[in-house]
Amino acid sequence: MQRADIVIIGAGIVGLATAFQIARARPALRLVILEKESTLASHQTGRNSGVIHSGIYYKPGSMKAATCRRGKVLLEAFCREHDVPFETCGKVIVAVDDREIPALARIHERGLSNGVRCEVIDAQRLHELEPSVAGVRAIHVPESGIVDYVRMCERLAHQIRQGGGEVRLGAMVVGFDRCPSTTVVRTTTGDVETRLVINCAGLHCDRIASREGARPAAKIVPFRGEYFELVPGAEALCRNLIYPVPDPSFPFLGVHFTRMVRGGVECGPNAVLAFAREGYTLGTLDPGDLLETLTYAGFWRMARKHWRTGMGEMWRSISKAAFVRALQRLIPAIKESHLVPAPAGVRAQSLLPDGSMVDDFLIEETDQAVHVLNAPSPAATASLAIGEHVAGRALIRVG
Questions:
Q1: Most distant CA atoms of the chain, gap in Å
Q2: Which of 222, 223, 316, 396 is the least buried, fewest Cβ under 10 Å from its Cβ?
Q3: Measured between alpha carbons, how far is 304 from 363 in angstroms, rounded to an integer?
Q4: Average pLDDT, the chain
Q5: Which residues pair with 168 in a beta bridge?
């Protein structure tokens, strides 16, 4: 049986960043990263829009705010050192009419409280930055950017392997055997005995936690985010990053425009219930996953609270014309012919039994494990800072 000091489950960006930070702090530790897929970053990491977030949206003092700000600095330094493409291109958050100005002002206040370099700009300055955008006022965030997160994961894995760690692909965790001072992690490619488990399993993190012996208070409910891309002739309508004023009661930022670091412009996402935890298309259905969602009281309590918003998101999912109308609030010149389908993503949203969505990052521990139980956006931006935090907890445990 293989033996390790620490086993990390999940080779998305949070798992790899955590392993990287542990290896930097304690090079002698034996690290094994287990990933059920045959490639790195196959799910949330590899399917997001590649934005480097500034931290402007998050509650001051929250873990999201602190790790996003710290993580952005660490991410940009890592990209420079390890040849990962990124660009600090700037972003605008747009109030399309006067009714959105108070909410825009609150976001600006949060940004200033979090140390974000940002300013409120008028319509004329907005037009200079983004000539195709319609808005009465905006926040300009010049320090936001774009990056290739898959490339970053590849470079993290390379550094981990160079330091003696193992990144084992195609290794699905199927169970745990608890011993007095160690845990045997059973996988489809062989067992590993370890002093500590770190669960960064994303879409399946609550299930891994339960199998390990934890009792997570929240359950993962998957939401599919569907995207379009602008055809090349329409890409000039978006220069950089264009966002709406978000609904403060719903933890999604609304459909927006994102110029991508490797070219092209992505539009979206909406947010609809996925019928499988890896349900990247409307027709993908996993009966077990769907039954688990539909028999969870927290889902129905959330649905009752947000049903109007949910119906709008579902309508945009099945109607391209409705999706286009949502985009036209920001860029009126957008037409259906400008859009072609792009790959969708699935967000692992942690939902409490009372129907409330866990807003902040959530990390819990058992006697032999650390579980990352909620790490949605901006987790990719914050990954190296989250990794620092989890590594700190882990190193105390392994001595």
A1: 67
A2: 396
A3: 28
A4: 95
A5: 34
